Amino acid sequence: MEAVTLFFKTIALRPYVFVFLAAFLFSAIKLIGWPRTWRFWIITWITAFICEFSSTRTGIPFGWYFYNGSTVGQELYVFDVPFMDSLSFSFLLFAAYTVALGLLLPADASPQSIKTFLTPLRFDLNPRTSWSVYGLTAFLFAFIDMVIDPVALRGDRWFLGKIYYYPDPGWHFGVPMANYVGWAVVGLIALALYFLIDRRLAPLSLAQPITPRLLLGIGLYYGVLAFNLAMTFWIDEWFMAVCGLLMHLPLIVFLIIRLIGPPRCYPST
Fold first, then answer.
1. Across the strands, what pairs with 164?
2. CB burial class (10 A; 0-12, 13-18, 19+) of residue 89?
């Protein structure tokens, strides 16, 4: 009963995390269906928890960092890892995956005759589990943390709270580069396991256009980014916020150019 009580306290303390989680579940089910969604969620969650548990004891793979237990009794912890923290990896990895798909999936040149502002994309198994998507997803996963982690480290200045620290702060606004390597490692492990399962499950029905559904996950990625940039501006870390914005701006522009353009008319097949 204590764990159940702490779970509800966690929702009350971290409502934004569960809003993002709900957005992940909705967008993932729309794109890949429930059987793949729950597997993606569990695989990423377990991978992230094991890596966090390991890193707080061995420094691998994120480097050394520690949770200070300042919110013990206010939110749920699994061993010494806040429940919401490892949970966040699931929706962030999925969001990064959809951005990578938006950038790399091949355009579909043979849909039925339609006019659309969105580039039709093929969601076949091989393109969506390709090496290029695999590598780019891991990069984008770590890339968004380069905005999230610096402001999270300053959580005592907003409603996150000061929940962790690095014994040896790094040069990137106090965050060691090993942390971003660790994020990439989590992404690579979890996505490799998911791709193996994706190839063994029943094929997806691809009758409906993929691009609008893909935009839900892409919107989640940039919704999380906007939230963290807003928190960074809010605590008056203007240089840090502008750096984060400028890091992501070229990618945003390229993604818009790729997915949105003048109306296209495709011949029937």
1. 67
2. buried
CA–CA separation, 26 and 20 (whole Å): 10
Q: What angle do CA 112, 116, 121 make, to 5 degrees?
A: 65
In contact, 216 and 210? CB cutoff 8 Å: no
* Angle (CA) 137 141 142, round 5°: 125
Mean pLDDT, to the nearest integer, of 83-98? 95
pLDDT in tens, 202-221: 999 776 789 999 999 999 99
pTM: 0.94
C-alpha distances (whole Å) from 168 to each of 45, 147, 175, 210 are 26, 19, 9, 45
The SS3 call for residue 232 is helix
Residue 189: name the closest of 89, 112, 78, 71 by CA. Answer: 89
* CA torsion, ordered 78, 83, 86, 90, to nearest 10 deg: 130
> Which position has the token pair 């609008």?
212
